[in-house]
Design goal:
It contains 9 helices and no strands. By secondary structure, the protein is mainly alpha-helical. It has one domain. Helix 6 runs antiparallel to helix 7.
Length: 223
């Protein structure tokens, strides 16, 4: 495929914004922000390695499978830490176990030298659903501040936007490339990149939110 576009490069490096804000605000001691920052760092490293291997003409899609799994585990961990009740937190930890089982099972049917048909789309749909569930369940709880003052609100919005756009991308790319429609494949990649930039801005906004005294587990530092 041709070299990545400008918007694709911006999308990759935009993943560093939330982690940079967390580091600047010394937010690494807040579990949800810690895991979110690490997840996006993992994704950035994976994208960077893919770019380097691709420039050298080497197989690079398998890197995406590795970084996607690591990123997914870290994101679901962050969502678990953002739950405001013990029961919802336990439910999210169960979802993490199911995620790992799902990934391991679907990888048995994947060709890692090609775009994903099962693992990555299911990963995207699962993270999308868990993000929306966290957003809605937290928003419906009584709290002293407006919903938009909480980090989980912006982070979940960003994750839902990102993974909603990603859910059908890899199967679509595989079809378009198999049919030789490279221009359409590049358009799909650029479309997803644009969504990713907006999603990172949303997540960064969450990392900029002040820590609320009654925001549940998201206010608890690592002990």
């Amino acid at each position: 495929m041709p070299a990545p576009s400008v918007i694709a490069h911006i999308a990759v490096w935009s993943q560093l914004l939330p982690a940079t804000v967390v580091a600047a605000k010394q937010g690494w001691n807040l579990r949800p922000r810690l895991w979110t920052g690490l997840a996006l760092l993992s994704s950035t490293v994976g994208d960077g390695v893919q770019f380097v291997l691709g420039r050298r003409g080497l197989s690079n899609l398998w890197i995406g499978y590795v970084s996607t799994a690591i990123t997914g585990i870290l994101i679901v961990t962050a969502l678990a830490e953002w739950q405001v009740t013990g029961r919802s937190r336990q439910t999210m930890w169960l979802a993490l176990i199911l995620y790992v089982i799902m990934w391991g099972t679907t990888m048995l049917f994947e060709e890692t030298a090609r775009f994903s048909l099962l693992a990555v789309p299911i990963h995207s749909v699962l993270v999308l659903l868990l993000s929306l569930w966290t957003l809605m369940s937290n928003a419906l709880k009584d709290r002293p501040q407006p919903t938009y003052r909480y980090d989980w609100f912006w982070a979940c919005l960003g994750l839902a936007l990102l993974y909603g756009a990603s859910s059908a991308m890899q199967p679509l790319l595989r079809i378009l490339i198999a049919e030789g429609q490279m221009n359409d494949a590049i358009a799909v990649l650029n479309f997803k990149a644009g969504f990713q930039v907006v999603a990172m801005l949303f997540i960064t906004a969450g990392m900029l939110c002040p820590v609320q005294a009654h925001s549940g587990f998201s206010s608890l530092p690592v002990r």
